[in-house]
Amino acid sequence: MEIRENVSLKSYNTFGIDVRARYFTEATNIGELQQVIQHQLFKQVPHLWMGGGSNMLLTCDFKGWVIRINLRGKQKEREEKGKVIISACAGENWHEFVVWTLNQNLGGLENLSLIPGNVGTAPIQNIGAYGVELKDTFRGLEALNIKNGDLEIFDREDCEFGYRDSVFKSRLKGQYLITKVYFALVPEKDHHPNTEYGAIQKQLESMAKLPTIHSVSEAVIAIRSSKLPNPKEIGNSGSFFKNPVVSVEQFHKLQQEYPEIVSYPVSEDEVKLAAGWLIEKAGWKGHRQGDAGVHEKQALVLVNYGNASGKEIEALSKEIQESVFRTFAVRLEAEVNIIGNC
Ligand code: EPU
Question: What angle (nearest 5°) sits at the alpha carbon of residue 49, between those of residues 161 and 135?
Fold first, then answer.
């Protein structure tokens, strides 16, 4: 295990923020992760586990130890009740993994094509898009207990998945490192692709294609590429905020004033609002201050046009939160992890 010093994190975070880590290690196997947690340095300085760096905003040089989890490998494990159990190690790139499952003619992950990030961080926020969430095909995961270095297995219930949420963001935050994830996928011949999301149906029609795992993936890639900036070209972390959930009562009040407000039912008492719509309506879409900006095609995405600092993007996000609150009395919560410790 190598410990490097004063390493730039610019190429390791999709926002492309140029800050440095005082100490930096790339762990490629479980043994190295166990060495890290037993190391003296681990007890002396703060630490930051990093996966694909696609859901974090670094606001300053990190004064402690950044450990990048780069465990690789994916394979078919077994068949179970007509499904195929697949495993993938934490450091596998999410989209490459999805493409691999499609090439094995397995369905279930096609709607989650082109989501940035790695396999190991996907369960933490239960990634989701176009009517599908990770939890729908999730079979279990293996995680390292940071206290004692033991590997433990979590099944779906143990993970307490919710909208962009899991037990690893709440009760067990900071206590486990996900090392491997298991999925139960369906052979293509038995799989019914989920095309309930209107944009997918429209895209398939415009491509004149029937829904198959490959065509749905293609449609998702086309929709995402048309709305969401490619982090390799413009730094970003996907949706910066979560879609807020409000009471039905508050929703009705808002609807009276804004009949065109975009919403999704959650339960009898709650409604989810499209944060992108709120931000656009409050006048922020396409706004730019210095190199920090609000994407011109999707207001939920904050972008770094080049040399924005994490602090500048954080400041912009705060202004947006205040403005949306003043306009709609709705609080936006960041979906991206904002990393301080300066
Ligand atoms: N909208 C606007 N203006 C905007 C953006 C959106 O009016 O600038 C409206 C759209 O017209 C649409 C609605 O808001 O009616 C929803 O927009 P979209 O379909 O783009 O989805 P979203 O709610 O903004 C969520 C996820 C995305 C995911 C898409 C598709 C969250 C926080 N975001 O975005 O996930 O790809 O649905 O399922 O739930 C991510 O988490 O990083 C991410 C990109």
Answer: 20
Ligand 1 atom at minimal distance to the Cα of residue 295: 8
**At residue 263, what is the residue type?**
S
pTM: 0.94
Pocket test for ligand 1, best of 125, 300, 333 (most atoms within 8 A of CB): 300
Taking only the tens place, the pLDDT of each residue in 161-178 is 999 999 999 999 999 999
pLDDT for the residue 198: 84
Give residue limits of the domains in the chain. Answer: 4-69, 74-227, 235-339
Ligand 1 atom nearest the C-alpha of 163 is: 39
pLDDT tens-digit readout, 78-133: 999 999 999 999 999 999 999 999 999 999 999 999 999 999 999 999 999 999 99
Take atom 36 of ligand 1 and give the residue whose Cα is closest: 129
Same fold, 74-227 and 235-339: no
Are 289 and 320 in contact by the 8 Å Cβ rule? The answer is no
The active-site residue, picked from 87, 133, 164, 314, is 164
Q: How far apart are CA 139 and CA 304, in angstroms?
A: 36
Q: What is the CATH number of domain 235-339?
A: 3.90.78.10
What is the whole-number distance in angstroms between the Cα of residue 342 and the centre of ligand 1? 32
Residue 96 CB contacts under 8 Å (≥ 6 apart), including other chains: none
The CATH label, of 1.10.390.10, 1.10.760.10, 3.40.50.1000, 3.30.43.10, for the domain at 4-69 is 3.30.43.10
C-alpha radius of gyration, the chain, whole number: 20
What's the fold here for domain 74-227?
Answer: 3.30.465
298 CA distance to ligand 1 middle (Å): 7
